[in-house]
Amino acid sequence: MKYDLDRVIDRDGTGSAKWDNYMGGRHSGPTTSINADLNDDGSIPMWVADMDFQVPKPVVDALAERVQHGIFGYTMATDGYYQSVINWFGRRHNWEISKDWISTAPGIVPAVHFAVRTYCRPGDKVLIQKPVYYPFFRSITNGGCEIVSSPLIDNDGHYEMDFDDLEVRAADPKVKLAILCSPHNPVGRVWTRDELQRYGEICTRHGVLVVADEIHCDLMMPGNEFEPYGLLHEDLVKNSIICTAPSKTFNLAGMHLSNMVIPDKDLHKAYDAYMAQIGVAGGLNPLATTAVEAAYNGGEEWLAQVLNYIAGNHQHLKTFMANNIPRIKVYDLEGTYLNWMDFNDLGLDRKALEDLTQLKAKVLFDEGYIFGDEGIGFERINLACPRPILDAALQRLKKSIEG
Ligand SMILES: Cc1ncc(COP(=O)(O)O)c(C=O)c1O
């Protein structure tokens, strides 16, 4: 079936974090979001990573049927659920997952918190690569650990890992764990097999456990192919915890259900023991399991259209900026629907840039500095929206810079 992705859907009154929460208090501007008709002067939310598209029809249908059943007691993952996950990764990524490697989690952010607490002790250090998805920071510090960053190198618009620096930092005996963001949010890189292999070899050689956050793995832009960490050399895979989720792929973030893939038995046992200790093991939301199974089994046609649409939005953004505000540089997008943009040429400090986007243009991006100081002067835009929303945001930005 053909999905109408241009359609702007009113999310008002649904408790949407993106449309009703105004950036969790970071937003200093007007406290209303624009209406779905895009006519009033509320703010346009282009920040948190969910989509303004309806989910695949098979998901809506499966949920409707499940709701009709009318009983929502304590729920476990069924064989059908596991099989849908296994089939998806086998079919889409050529990665054969064994059922007994999988543990569920109420989201990747909680799962990363659990991993830090399971595999590190207070005082240990955890390696990340800034600019990077900022909730990693708290998962480390809340676990009493210290953040160590090996910053990515911006090689003329193409971010790369600094392997010499990684080698030095991973060699610190206090570094026990590394969080890999693959594909990388916010810089939009899809790491190559060679980059992942080098990263994994460095970590494994120094006894640093890799937590690979692959939440964006299905969101590939044309010409790019995702390389699962689970397809690297067996020794590297044994030294890893791989976080997968349908939440970004199928716009199911509010369902809070993701799958941790842990091939090593001892590491897996330790993870499950921690989950049991804090009372999170086992019980799942019946609507979430229904939605995830339906999405993995029947969401492919929808995903193809959505990816194509997002690639079109990226191209639209690039062309618009080049023609209208060439001082704003739009980075290439290999994967994810989150596009990194450099505003430094405008010559504004942090506060002035925020005032320009949030107060004057009334467009809510995620400010680059929240991903680390390397992101100062950058903004991250969410492209998973109908084009009329993107257009309205770009027109506002143009006007506010010209005016
Ligand atoms: C890299 C990355 N990890 C995790 C998450 C959120 O995961 P969850 O909603 O499953 O906690 C996001 C959301 O944007 C993300 O970009």
Write up what this structure looks like:
The structure is a single chain. By secondary structure, this protein is of the alpha/beta class. The protein has 2 domains: 17-56 and 300-402, Aspartate Aminotransferase, domain 1 (Alpha-Beta Complex), CATH 3.90.1150; 74-288, Type I PLP-dependent aspartate aminotransferase-like (Major domain) (Aspartate Aminotransferase, domain 2). Helices cover 38% and strands 14% of the residues. It is built from 13 helices and 15 strands. The protein has a 7-stranded mixed β-sheet, sandwiched between helices. A 4-stranded antiparallel β-sheet has the order 11-12-15-14. Strands 1-13 form a two-stranded parallel ribbon. Helix 7 (193-205) links the parallel strand 7 (175-181) and strand 8. Helix 2 (57-69) runs antiparallel to helix 10 (286-298) and helix 3 packs parallel to helix 10. The longest helix has 25 residues, at 300-324. The termini are far apart. The structure holds pyridoxal-5'-phosphate (PLP). The site of pyridoxal-5'-phosphate has 13 residues, from helix 4.
Features:
2 domains; Aspartate Aminotransferase, domain 2; globular; 7-stranded mixed sheet; 13 helices; 403 residues; binds pyridoxal-5'-phosphate; Aspartate Aminotransferase, domain 1; 4-stranded antiparallel sheet
The span between the termini is 44 Å
Specify the overall morphology. globular
Main sheet attributes: strand count, strand direction, barrel closure: 7 strands, mixed
Number of strands: 15
Give the DSSP E fraction (strand runs of 2 or more residues): 5-15%
Mean pLDDT figure: 96
Number of domains: 2
CATH architectural type of the largest domain: 3-Layer(aba) Sandwich
Tell me the structural class. Answer: alpha/beta
Low-confidence stretches: none
The CATH C-level class name of the largest domain: Alpha Beta
CATH superfamily of the largest domain: Type I PLP-dependent aspartate aminotransferase-like (Major domain)
Strand order of the largest sheet: 2-10-9-8-7-3-4
